[in-house]
Structure formats: C-alpha cells, structure tokens
Amino acid sequence: MVRVLIPKTGMGITEGTITKWHKREGESVTKGEVIAEVESAKAIEEVAAPASGVLKRILLAEGETAEVHTAIATIEAESL
Question: Which of 16, 53, 56, 58 is 20 to 30 A from 29 (CA-CA)?
Fold first, then answer.
C-alpha cells in the first residue's frame, strides 16, 4: 500500500482541507495524475497520485482538515 499525504505548500503551513476528490475508491489511478485538491491558508494545491494502481481507501472526506503529511488515502500499487 502507498499512502497519499497532504502536501506542505509553503513555510508556516501546518494543515490543509480536502476540497475535492477527483477519483473514487476502487478507481484506477496513474502516477502523477491529480486525484484530489487540498486548500491551505495560502492556496489550493493539487494532490497527485504517488504511484499507479487502485485508489483503495479514502481516509479524509471533502471538507475535512488535517495536518500536513497526514495520510488522506491509500493506493494499492501495481505489481512490477
């Protein structure tokens, strides 16, 4: 399993809020593909899939807030 984390968008940014999921649980994702958007105090940041595979579980729903580097989803990575 590969964890998808809230990105750190700048100095002093300590948390982010999920504003939109572009994918649903069970859907295929490709490494680098935008799967969610996170809003911080300074900007809205796109979150890209860190690996190709299946979006196995969404851990934070739209509207939920968590600290930077918190896992927001898991991807079951493709086998090599």
Answer: 16
